[in-house]
Amino acid sequence: MTHVQEYDAVVIGAGFAGIYMTHLLSEGGYSVRTYEAGESVGGTWYWNRYPGARCDTPSEFYSYTFSEELYKGWTWSSFYPKQEEIMDYLNYAVNKLNIRENIHFNTAMKSADYNEENKRWEIHFTDGLKVQAKYFIPAIGGLNAIHTEPHRPKIKGLENFKGVYQHTSRWSPEEVNLKGKRVGVIGTGSTGVQTIIEAAKEAEHVTVFQRTPQYVLPVKNPKLNSEQMKEMHDNFHSLDRRVLAHPTGMPSFPVLRNYSALENTPKERQQFYEQLYEEANGFQMIFAYNDLMLNEESNETLAEFLRSKIKETVKDPETANELLPTYLVAAKRPIVAKGYFETFNQNNVSLVNLRKTPFVDATEKGLRTTETEHELDIIIFASGFDVGMGPIRDSNIRGRGGVLLHKKWEEGANIKTYLGACHNEFPNFLPIGGTHYPLGVNVIGPTQVMGKWIYDLINHFDKHGIEEIEPTLEAEETWTNHVNEIGEMSFYSTVDSWFNGGNIEGKPRRILGYAGDFLMYQEQIEKSLDYKAFIHSPKLTHAIN
Ligand code: NA7
């Protein structure tokens, strides 16, 4: 009989969340093994190696803040880090935390089953490996195209295309060189916009296939000098407090005018928006006034300003017109980039409005729309993700009585979680960083809050000899209803996007993340600390420490 290796905990994925969980558990004395499908740590930043990939959260806050030594031992080169630099950072973190040995690379999860008799998870991998663990902690993220197929528009006859096509989340820089090529980019989200800017620099021609126009917030990306870096390090003592006290976990973007945009005259607003546009400080524009994300009329003042900038920047009025968004600013994930609209003034960039001229099919030479055939050497799918459901569907996670998580979600016509971190009928299954995590918040904040929450939960139940951590059905329903109600009230429900499943044809529309801000989220977490939401919690008699 082959021996099946058993651990206290198995973590899936070695991105920010997986690394943090591995660190907490191994430091806490648990045996923990982490399985990563890639050949390196990095998670999202390992897979998304497309040209121009860069983070739009300032590096000061796109760092772990749980360890002073870790924080102060790293120097970022610029305000917004590039993909390669984040990979270097995460490699540094893994070495510094001494957990590299816990991570098993090139190993993708295939399925996981809960065995009710021995109360262990059995996790299967695509290479045939099988392990057992008491706690099963997927840290695979919501925007994941590794445990599922990347989302691509269904284009008839794609197999006939003689050129190269790749999805940005499976990009392999070694195989694709855009220089001098005719490149088609499908999608104009954060990824598409970054890719288009880079492609426009070296491709012979870039054809942008746009379904929905986007607002793009301007940004400069200054290098960080040693003085600035020292200041960041010196401010470490207040860092956590500042991050936790900010609605998006990014304290460098304060609300600048703590009143409604409508309280200023149009002239005052215009001057203020002009000044902020010139300063080009990324997300800062959506914190110009305190009600831009709350009041449609206020939001429309910023929307109109940003539309006017597109018209001012793009010389060809017809192209400018096609690039104008009509929905509320930041109702879709806001995009931050430098020089996007300017690319449309280059002779080698053209725009196709897929709403007017949709795809007909792919041919040997390129992509055919109802208007014409676009000849291409490379097709780049920057078409996003089947967020939430995609990675779960293909992970085949079976709880009590063999119930499949995604089937349960499909049959119930709803995705249900308790705090995004546990599920009724799935004991000791503690995913981090996926469905029902906060939207519009710097992901590092909730990752650390929930990582610690999961660790404390395990530790606490362990100390009290309670073998199964499982939320009640009622707790799951209450949390899910809360997520849905807030989602419905928020701007995120007003336009199709991955926030609500509307980015994918036929996908049921339901909010996939927590639309309250980071402060509201923390309040909910705080409330959960009596652990009353768990089936076995009545046995707890000790005070929570
Ligand atoms: P996004 O933001 O979901 O963007 C995907 C883009 O692809 C977006 O422009 C979509 O248009 C477009 N898309 C998706 N499906 C189709 C079809 N069927 N036809 C044409 N165009 C399509 O994903 P990203 O990778 O850019 O960004 C993901 C996150 O990474 C981002 O939120 C940041 O957190 C970083 P649509 O707007 O849906 O009409």
TrEMBL record:
Swiss-Prot/TrEMBL keywords: FAD, Flavoprotein, Monooxygenase, NADP, Oxidoreductase
Cofactor or coenzyme needed: FAD
Top EC category: oxidoreductase
UniProt EC number: 1.14.13.-
One MF term in the entry's GO annotations: monooxygenase activity
Residue ranges of every copy of the FAD/NAD(P)-binding domain listed in the record: 7-234
Family, as annotated: Belongs to the FAD-binding monooxygenase family.
Annotated protein name in UniProt: Flavin-containing monooxygenase
